Structures are given as structure tokens and as C-alpha cells.
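User: Predict the full complex structure for these chains.
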Amino acid sequence: MVNKVVKNADEAVKDIPHRATLMLGGFGLCGIPENCISAILKSGMTGLTCISNNAGVDDFGIGLMLKTRQVKKMISSYVGENAEFERQLLSGELEVELIPQGTLAERIRAGGAGIPAFFTPAGVGTEVAKGKETREFNGKIYLMEHWLRADFSLVKAWKGDTAGNLIYRGTARNFNPMMAEAGTITIAEVEELVPIGTLDPNSIHTPGIYVHRIFQGVNYEKRIEQRTISNLKI
Amino acid sequence: MVNKVVKNADEAVKDIPHRATLMLGGFGLCGIPENCISAILKSGMTGLTCISNNAGVDDFGIGLMLKTRQVKKMISSYVGENAEFERQLLSGELEVELIPQGTLAERIRAGGAGIPAFFTPAGVGTEVAKGKETREFNGKIYLMEHWLRADFSLVKAWKGDTAGNLIYRGTARNFNPMMAEAGTITIAEVEELVPIGTLDPNSIHTPGIYVHRIFQGVNYEKRIEQRTISNLKI
Amino acid sequence: MLDKTQIAKRIAREVKDGMYINLGIGIPTLVANYIPKNINVVLQSENGLLGIGPFPLEAEVDADLINAGKQTITMMPGSSLFSSAESFGMIRSGKVDLTILGAMEVSEEGDIANWKVPGKMVKGMGGAMDLVASAKNIIVAMQHCSKEGASKLLTCCTLPITGLRCVKRIVSDLAVLDIIPGRGFQLLERAPGVTVEQIKNATEGKLFIQGEIPEMVL
Amino acid sequence: MLDKTQIAKRIAREVKDGMYINLGIGIPTLVANYIPKNINVVLQSENGLLGIGPFPLEAEVDADLINAGKQTITMMPGSSLFSSAESFGMIRSGKVDLTILGAMEVSEEGDIANWKVPGKMVKGMGGAMDLVASAKNIIVAMQHCSKEGASKLLTCCTLPITGLRCVKRIVSDLAVLDIIPGRGFQLLERAPGVTVEQIKNATEGKLFIQGEIPEMVL
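Assistant: Here is the predicted structure of the four-chain assembly.
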């Protein structure tokens, strides 16, 4: 079998060129490829286009890649809570394309499913619709949206096996499964890498066919943005 | 909680009207809603349009509904191995619409995902393309295809809970998850109905929001079409 | 005039047994606290969960379990987890029965503006445009007027639109109003102590008043 | 002339380590039997499985585990199960490296006809149109001529088309040929004992022959 297992994040990302288009999984800081982000910071490629629902915070996640000026363009649905982001955007250093979250998810899904374009009602009548084809189906207006694909997709899963099969955990799944499918090269970092045959084939979230490189990550911080606590169990 | 659990298949299908459009899960005889099919045979509604990848065999599955002349139209990708089907088709009693399997799966998925139309390369240059809009994306020609939805979707799962969450088993999953999503009313029959909170939320294939009625089926035959056996373990 | 908690309480009365509901950030999130115990609903979080439970105890906190506001949460029995594509699929196909969200402006046609203020840093629309374009039933929680006293219930929205002709009902600090095509804002209930005259003055868009307007029950 | 088993054996030599492969019904299914032990591939079944294993022992037979030909199968270690939508998603997006299928006719442009014969009962195209429209690399296993001796490698297909300009290579009972845009069928190998002249006579479409044509190794 062709070996998909790489030693670590440094090895996994080493051939990402300058000006590559990347997808990075995660919603907020939940389910982000922490190890790959660290490796990108170290290896210093620049001019990156990053497709990710959010842009991290000032000192974690994609926010760190913004600080090092490695990102030329962000394609996201929500980019709040990030002062450096705001500064670069206002100064014109950073391009930003904002896409409705469901459209973003579906465009990535379409990329991985070989569907070059589809129609969605989200954004009709808004500035998102500018320059886009609209069409009526059954009396309702829809926008035509195109697939999104990436040179490299960086995803984070809970468990993975050496064949590249992935299982996510909780709401850390979010954008990871679609991004895994939409990458020309997909790199998966997992909390636990297990031997082939260990995972239940019926419970796999991302079939191994989509994953080109896999490694067991280290030192997961899994930072929490809003630590909300109940005082008593309801 | 609104109760989704019904006693049996008879109760589940009793309000399906004549001339309804149904989706029926399964690939060949694998993963078909056996109990619902039996109940439809008993309750005798006619003029049905059935969307299902196959049409069963002469004496099992949708083949039984053909024998009783309850089906006006089949929408499928492959309808071999069925003499009664052939007779009705040639005599003009039965309408048939053949759709490439991937396009069928994606049209149903689109129905459940609120995507009224999308583009696929399957069928370009063939008789499937007749009357359909074509469009070029990145130098390749695609056909525009529309979503499929059903008045009632009849799906079969392995396990289900009282909230309607479903888990399929093996390749009996096939068309069931998309059909569950594309039904105005979705009826799920399961081999084992378990209390809420029993299934792992991370392993659910069909979230309960898509399922309106659920019951534990009885007497599953699970007939095998091609019983192929190895003489020795490889 | 209602405070935020009271707006949430009033909206909680719109919730019916068995509903699947998406709650936006802010006042809508508070609604969950006031749903009567005998009414069972399933809360959807668009980042991939059906069955949001209460905030976790200190020992239960799990970084892999957050809601769309990035708050740590728990799961109710019967929950299911899924991808963002699946999540917005169920939103677009109308499986979510009720969407409750905030707004900066609503027009008498039901247009809503809640994602962008020109001149201010744009944070993005998140899932709001998908939700308003597809939800079967949208209730808006909002302040009737700005701090400066300008009405937010308008003939036409002045801010960039999030979605067209989608809002069905508004619960503001002053009133409950439905949006009826052609009629505009139909006044249904007054906040305790608020007069119809006050509501008239605070509503720039077309206001439709029929018969006696009752005071709302909280 | 090759028999079916020999065609399958010859095609097995096209298989490279690490490939994801979709095998059609008939001769293509036989290919799995001749893949060398040191080459590991993953077989895709379009009804929702990556990792088809051998047929089950009597005691292992499971009605919930079949391939696209509806035969009972087993799963290899590292398998994954998924829906038909997911399955054709991976086919359309080009993740399957190699597709091997049968054909009734192939044109010199690479068009393929394999689903319908006018006047005969139509059974449907199943997944064939999706596969040929999207596969990166399609190898066709077929008879060079009909029982009546008519060529099936044609200038233009006479039967209803399954897909346009998609076939890359043909392994017939007489020869191995590539389809090269503009050149037509480029002859690569002869079946043992078959002459170039025989292949010429059996090929109605444009045949491109360059240099010495070796006999194939099985």
C-alpha cells in the first residue's frame, strides 16, 4: 500500500508553495488543524489564499498566520474578534471575500463532489448577489454559485487510520469533512492515529480516498473562545 | 416531545393517497423498506410514482407493487431482472424514467438540501441530455439537473431511536440517507428501535429532524439476489 | 418597555411542542431559558448539532462542543452531530421550523438588515443570509428604536440587506407585530404600559392597527 | 485470441500500487483475481463501499453487504461505508484513479456505448454514465468483434452513447490499443498468435500503427 503516513506537520506541509490556495477546517477555534498551522508559520510560505469559515483570533489559529503576513486573501463567512485582521483589512494589506456560511459549506461540498455550480436562495437581493446569475425555480429566486477547490486542504480529526479514514468528534466536525473532499492534496492531522482495520467502517466520516497525508498531531491546545458554565445541572 | 413512533407499517403508510410520489430506499434488494412495501400492497393505493434505484425482482421488493398494478411510473437507474416490469413497460401500462445512478443520487440529495438545480457531467452527449440545458465550466460540458422530492419517503435503517435518528448497516445505507432528507413526510422502518439517548450522536447517519414517523419492523427477509461464496478464505 | 429578558420571555411563548428551532446570538439565545418544561423542542446549532443542551458544569467543559456563538455547551439525549454542509442543507430545505434572530432594521415588506453597518468593521454574515433565505418562520427580536430614537421598523431598510421578504413576526421592546404583505406591520400586542400612540411614533414604516390592541402577557 | 480470463489478466497488469479502482460487472470483476499480491489497491463499489474483499465464506454471508452487481461480498481492513451520493461524489470529483468496464462499441474518438441496444429491453444505465463522464482513466475490456464478425472498434458508435471522448485504453481479445485524439486507435500489443493484419481487418475505425508491435505478456 502506498504510505500516507507522514512523520509530523512539518513534513506534511513542506511542499506547499507560495501563493497556494488552502482550505483550513474548523469553526471558530473548534476543530482547527493546530499542528499544520504551526508548521506553516515555521516554513514561511507567503501569499496564501485561505478558505476557512473564520480567521482565528489574534493569538491563535489563522490569526497567527495573519500576524506573520503569510495570508494574502481570506475567504470566510465571519471574521470578527481579530484586531490584526481588522488592521490589515483597513490598510489594504489583506483581501477578504465574505460568503454566507451555508453557501461556503455547499460550495466546498460541491468542489469535493464534482458539481461545478448549483443554485441557492442565500444572498438573493443582497450585495452577495452582485454580478451573479439569478434564476427562478418554482416561483422562488436563487443565485448560481460555483464550487470551491483548494491546492491543499488541512483538516483536523479525532481519530484516523493509516488508510486515511477519519472520524471527527462533537462539533469539531463542522467544515472538515467537505474540505477533506475538496483538496487536490488533503492533509489530515488526528489526535489518535490507529492501525488499519481498527475503525468501524460504518462509523467513518471521511473515507480514506480523500486523504493523501496523515499524521498524529501533538500538544493540542484546543483553545476555548467562550467558556460558558452552568452553575447547576438543569 | 411530539411522538414520532407509530405502531407498525400499516399505521405509517395509511394516509398515503393515490397518485402520491414515493421514494423507496435500497440498492437491489439491499436496504429496502420491506415492511412499508407490504403495507402498501395491503392498503392498495394506486397510480404511484416510485423513485427508487431499482424496481425489485418479480416476487420481492417493488416488484410486488408492480404485480398489483399500483405503480404508474418508475424513476430508476437500473430495472433489470424483472419480467413483469418488462411486460408492463412494453404494453405501455408503466412509465419509466431512467436516470444515471449518480445523477439520481445527487438529485435526491439536492432535494433534501434545498438546492433546486445543479450541474453534472454525467449524460452529456447521450439521450439523457435531450432537452436539458448544457453549460461549460472550466472547459468541460455539464448538464443542468433539478432536485427530486417526494410526498413520502420510505427508508429502512438498522437502528433508530424515538427521536428519529437513524444508523444504517453495511451497503444497506445506499440511497436511504438522501431519501430520508427529500421526503415531505419521511417514514423510517428500523430493525431495532431504541430509546432516546441510546445512540452515539457522533455516529448518527440521518439526524432525527428528517424523520417524521418511525417503527420497528418485523420479519425481515433480507433476500439476497446473488449469493456468491468463497470456497476458502483468501 | 420590555428589557431583553422580557423580549426573550415573550418570544418563548411562540414555541410549540416538537419544534426544531435555530436561535441566533444575543436575545434569541436567552429564549431557551424560558421555554416551559412541558414543551420539548430541539435546538439546532448551525455549526453541526441538533439538540443543544445547557451550558456545561465546570467538569463537563469540552472544547469540541460549542454552539454557533462559540460558547461551550452540552448535548441533550437524542442529539445528532453532522457537518456544516448537512446543517445548512436542513436549513435550506425548510426542516427547521422556527428561526429566531436579532435585527438592526426590518422593513414593512419583511426585509431584514442585521449584518453590516457601513463605515464599521465588517465581521461577516455568518449563517444569517442562509437562515433568512430559507426559514419557514422567522421571528425577530429587536429594539423598536435606536438609542437616538430613530425607528428601526422602516418603509425600506437603509442598511445593507440580509434577506428579502422573510420576517414573519417581530417582538420588540414596545410591541408584537406581524408582517402582512401589503399591510405592513400589523400591531398585535403592546408591551405593558406602552400606548398605541407611542408605538405609532416609534414606527416609521406602514403600521396597521385593527380594533383594540391588548397588552401582552409575559 | 484471448479468452475472458486472459483479458482480465492483461488488464490486471495496468493496476498500480495504491490505486482506487472501480470495476464494472463481467470481465472487469475478474481483474481483481489477477492483481499481484505485492500490489495493494482499494476497490470501490458505487453502492457505497471502499475496500471490497473476496466473496464471503458460507458462514460470513451478509445480506447487508453487496457489491454493485448485487453479489455478496466481504470488506477488507480499512474499509469505509457511505451513501450513494457520497459514492458518486468521489467518482465525479476524480478521486477514483482507474475505472475498468465493458463496452459494446468504442469509437476512435473514445466514445463508448455500453448500456442500450435498440429493440432490446432497456435495463438502464446504472452508474455507467457517471463513471465514464468523470473517471480520470478508463480501460475498456471488450471483444474486438461481434459474433457475426463485425468490428466493435468504430469510426462512430452506432449504438446509443454512454459517454463522449472518455476511453483511454482498450484490452480486447485481439489487442491492446490506446485512444489518441486525432490518431484514433493506436495499436500497442497483439494477443499471442494474432497478426497485425488480423487486427487491421477487425478494426473499422482509424488504426494507428507505429513500428514493431510486440506480442503481449500475460
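Residues 4-208 of chain C form a domain with the Glutaconate Coenzyme A-transferase fold (CATH 3.40.1080.10).
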